[in-house]
Design goal:
With 288 residues, this protein is α/β, with parallel strands linked by helices. It is built from ten helices and nine strands. The longest helix has 20 residues. The structure holds the ligand N[C@@H](CCC(=O)N[C@@H](CSC=O)C(=O)NCC(=O)O)C(=O)O.
Length: 288
Amino acid sequence: MPGDLELVSEWRHFGGWMRQYAHESAAVGGLKMTFNVYLPPQAETGPVPVIYYLAGLTCTGETGAQKGHFAKAAAQRGVAIVYPDTSPRGAGVAGEDDDWDFGTGAGFYVDATQQPWSKHYRMYTYVREELPALVTEHLPIRKGKAGIFGHSMGGHGALTLAMRNTDKYASVSAFAPICNPLEVPWGVKALKGYLGDDRATRAEYDATNLMLEKGPFPSLGTILVDQGKADKFLDQQQLTPHVLQEACEKKGQSMQLRIHEGYDHSYYFVSSFGEEHINFHADALATL
Ligand SMILES: N[C@@H](CCC(=O)N[C@@H](CSC=O)C(=O)NCC(=O)O)C(=O)O
């Protein structure tokens, strides 16, 4: 049975509501979690389809809600957007606030297996199970398959959650995702820290590996990825979208990789293509 939601704040937005809720989370070991949700005007007359947006390193549930500019399209299409946090907060793990790319704000959407992270750093289960159960129980959000998208670390989360749970997600897209965390500096640090040295365990959270080992995933349709060409993290080999594209080609998975001249990694990039991502998911959810 899902727990209760505490309304923290609400703002009228494009005829609907942006709300922020807090709740006690069993998934992350009893800590308080906060998320944002956009409910379009159509939610006043009945349950609407939902898209989950996973944010990147250093972000919270507020980041995509405030800077993604997704709500206008969501209101037009009658879809809700749920914005989870990017990690547990206040877990009390020694060193969790030392680095911006590991620990607080950097949960990587995995269920940690390593001490001292494994009690609280369980964002995979939080996003996959607990949060959907809560929002469909308490809010006018349709049960059944959802869409999922994200940015950078959140793009990695969206891709891996969708590929591992095709019964739960109908569509997936990403902005500048970390496509091959097994092999890139951010991913090596985080996955080894949370999951240890066993490569097979870490590989379960690697989109490129999942595509090669378990793909294709025809029920997901086309995987949409937008990437800015002037993104400094692309140059630093943190994102490697072409590696995922090659894996998709090898396995016969439809993927649309769009490289955008001049765009960087920021929310100026994300928000420039946000409407297209909302329409992409709304189209998929409308067929269910
Ligand atoms: N502090 C870092 C930069 C952190 C950063 O750019 N975070 C991105 C996500 S990166 C991958 O997950 C982000 O979305 N930031 C929030 C924002 O509002 O832009 C550094 O020193 O480079």
